[in-house]
Amino acid sequence: MRVLVAYNPVSGRGIANKLGGDISAALLQKGCDVELLPTEVGDQRKWLSPRLKQIDRVVAVGGDGTLRAIASCLVDTNTPIYHAASGTENLFAKSMQMSNDPQKVVHAILEGDVQKIDTASANGEFLLLMASVGFDAEVVADLAATRGQSITHMSYLMPCVRKFLKFSPPEVSITIDDAMVVQNLRGWVVVANSPAYARGLNPAQNASLTDGLLDVVFLPIRSRYSLITWMLRAKRGTHLQHKKAIELQGKNIQIKTSSPAHWQLDGDSPPEGTTASCLDVVVRPNSLAIISA
User: Fold this and answer.
1) What is the pLDDT of residues 177-197, one digit of tens each?
2) Which residue, of 89, 112, 135, is where some domain finishes?
3) Are residues 176 and 205 located together in one domain of the fold?
4) Which residues are within 8 A (CB) of 158 and not within 5 positions of it... i.e. 6 or more apart?
5) At which of 88, 112, 136 does a domain end?
6) Residues 162, 259: one domain?
7) Residue of 55, 80, 78 whose CA lies nearest to 67
8) Per-residue b or e along 155-172, where b marks 16 or more CB atoms closer than 10 Å to that residue's CB
9) By CB atoms within 10 Å of each CB, which of 23, 33, 117, 200 scores lowest?
């Protein structure tokens, strides 16, 4: 079996570097043909896609951003991927119960089942977990502009403070499969392919990676006070029970904002931290093969 182990050399402050080597060594002991490949800055289609042509399995070692970059090159192929996580949140690996223990990774590669899950695109950019417009996207954009190579949970502190003090959400309008469901309201919009979200907030707690649909959650937020209130509800898991919360599903989602706004996908800013007045999110059912733990 030919296995590509692609690792982010700066993820987890170097943890992924060692983890990638340990996983490769464990696979070699089982007779696998292994290629160990560090990720590179820039278009992954240039440095990764040519290496995938003769590969049977892929192990992504790093955080959710590393996984997203690697998985984007495997969409609509039959080559499955496994996530050995070493990032800050590791949302996908946690939700799919994927371990980063080298022996468990080897067992999954050799014995695990392969299943297909949904992915999506947001303004043409690949996403696996979710996209959003609102306070979280502003924080992510701030972090992207100031971050070093590796981040921790503490890295988000000052971006959160800065954006909270300047909080002024744009008006949003949401269209789902050509039907307008929100018009010119201030708030937070999450379009989710997965229920997993940072710090256990999970705004779209009913989303599924295998239902062929995207879950859309809108929470009306006009002030800093209402932002805190909604975040507390989300932390308790009661936000969707509120009469003003909107939860719907669809295949084609369009979010328009009254002024250009930051957006985030899978916890990262889009290329160059771009803003947009319109965000189009489209589901791609059964488009990515993964290895079950």
Assistant:
1) 999 999 999 999 999 999 999
2) 112
3) yes
4) 146
5) 112
6) yes
7) 80
8) ebeebeeebeeebebbbb
9) 200
